[in-house]
Specification:
Order of helices and strands: EHHHEEHEHEHEEHHEEEHEHE
Strand order of the largest sheet: 1-2-3-4-5-12-6-11-10-9-8-7
Number of strands: 12
Number of helices: 10
Largest sheet: 12 strands, mixed
């Protein structure tokens, strides 16, 4: 690739980074070829952060980004996790962003960069090219309408549909759930950011114990499929299955165009393989976690 064709912008202000989202959004949806589950990945790295977003450009056109986040659930506190988004066949831009992110991580005083992918996707190809280590960290799950489970009794209460984005008492219940489940700095602004915007969930269902929200499942719609993710604090596998099945009922009733549901399990993903199986999901692939040591910034560009 000719030198100088790509340029890189490092953005620390989350609000400023979000301004690029409309320009990237259509591309991101087109690039989200299964089994790379972009909406679910994005959902875990939304909100205020002290770490930068790296945006690659060809001329004035954004062609990819790497969002960095302190997420010790995957590789430990010395490793910064990244969500790297490019066209699925653009290995050169992907490698450029990963190399640039690893250099940025060194400037931040950390020892490594981590990211997620599957055995045959661009993340894995770039990891091999750059000599990154890899380990299995979870699984990718799918379910079609023919296998979606049907409602059955749960131990306490029943799932109910939630209004999105949450406000008032529901927002306060959401913040409390996220804090109990994920133990990080969640507040009204961060929860609102995660559950709003162009790639926000279209549906959510929750389980309540009096006024306490104990678990939620969300669905982000991408054409004929939805990506689902769970936030749980003290609910059983049976109740988790009930949440998924309730969302399937909502999809049957109001979103007949959806023909495929996807989700993830493993490190950092709040779901249960037994619960997913009972709801009608099946595993379709492995989720890998890659790690590249941080290194000095490189003088050349692709």
């Amino acid at each position: 690739m000719p030198r100088g064709e790509k340029t890189l912008r490092v953005v620390y202000d989350t609000a400023e980074a979000a301004q690029t989202r409309p320009a990237l959004h259509a591309k991101m949806l087109a690039w989200a070829a299964e089994p790379v589950d972009l909406p679910a990945f994005r959902a875990r790295w939304t909100g205020p952060t002290q770490l930068p977003t790296l945006i690659a450009y060809e001329g004035t056109e954004p062609v990819g980004w790497a969002m960095l986040d302190d997420d010790s659930e995957h590789e430990g506190r010395d490793t910064v996790m990244a969500v790297v988004v490019t066209a699925p066949d653009d290995d050169a831009t992907h490698a450029y962003l990963v190399r640039s992110a690893a250099a940025e991580v060194r400037l931040l005083g950390r020892t490594g960069l981590g990211w997620l992918g599957t055995p045959d996707d661009v993340n894995a190809r770039v990891a091999s090219q750059l000599g990154a280590s890899a380990r299995e960290s979870g699984h990718y799950w799918v379910a079609e309408p023919a296998t979606w489970g049907t409602a059955h009794p749960v131990a306490r209460g029943a799932p109910i549909r939630l209004t999105l984005p949450p406000t008032g008492a529901l927002l306060r219940a959401y913040v409390d759930l996220y804090r109990r489940s994920q133990g990080r700095g969640w507040d009204d602004a961060r929860v609102t950011a995660e559950l709003s915007g162009p790639d926000a969930p279209v549906l959510a269902a929750g389980l309540w114990d009096e006024r306490t929200l104990r678990g939620v499942v969300h669905a982000v719609e991408v054409g004929p499929r939805v990506s689902m993710w769970f936030v749980r604090a003290g609910i059983s596998d049976v109740e988790t299955t009930a949440l998924a099945v309730h969302l399937f009922d909502e999809l049957r009733a109001g979103h007949p165009q959806v023909q495929r549901a996807t989700t993830l399990s493993g490190d950092g993903w709040d779901s249960s393989p037994d619960a997913l199986t009972a709801a009608g999901f099946r595993t379709e692939g492995r989720l890998l976690s890659f790690r590249l040591p941080a290194f000095e910034p490189l003088a050349d560009t692709p």
